[in-house]
Design goal:
Oligomer: single chain
Radius of gyration: 23 Å
Structural class: alpha+beta
Largest sheet: 7 strands, antiparallel
Helix content: 40-55%
Number of helices: 5
Length: 174
């Protein structure tokens, strides 16, 4: 008769800690009320959270789909589609450190238009090749004036400052 005894207490503690960490992460994602997706570039698969599917009007809840099918199903607004693809490709190519942009989608069932803010990070292997991209997407409140955020805000501020300076000059001459 032969046998062995091993102390697995440390492994059990590590497994319990990992489970607890995963539960906390899942709660944080749920509490954020944002859609999330993870693109495994090597496998060409995208995991889509239930909230992401809901925001984009996609059937099926949380799911894993082929990347080409996912991108083909995105209900991008026709005026924003080219810019969205360009920004994504620039980020994946490594020409931007993070992806942070806004665009519109049009829900196929209702025609409802939604503004989406995307924040993403592409993670690379040791050779610099893209492996995973993680994306968070909140749905933005309705806006009457699209684009008055980020860069456009700076443009609007500069325009107002030029107008103020011009008015000051006109008052000074009077």
């Amino acid at each position: 008769i032969a046998g062995s005894v091993a102390d697995i207490d440390a492994r059990k503690r590590a497994e319990a800690a990992l489970r607890q960490s995963e539960e906390r992460y899942a709660l944080a994602l749920t509490g954020s009320n944002e859609g999330h997706w993870l693109w495994d570039m090597a496998a060409r698969q995208i995991y889509v959270s239930a909230k992401q599917a809901e925001l984009f009007g996609l059937d099926g809840g949380a799911q894993t789909v082929a990347d080409q099918n996912y991108f083909a199903r995105l209900p991008l607004h026709p005026e924003d589609a080219e810019r969205v693809h360009f920004n994504r490709n620039e980020h994946v190519a490594g020409r931007t450190p993070r992806l942070d942009h806004e665009f519109r989608i049009v829900l196929p069932e209702t025609g409802e238009q939604r503004w989406i803010h995307t924040r993403a990070q592409c993670f690379r292997d040791a050779a610099g090749q893209p492996e995973f991209t993680v994306v968070a997407r909140p749905c933005l409140p309705r806006r009457d004036r699209p684009g008055i955020r980020h860069g456009t805000c700076r443009h609007e501020l500069a325009r107002r400052q030029r107008r103020r300076e011009r008015l000051r000059g006109e008052y000074a001459r009077e």
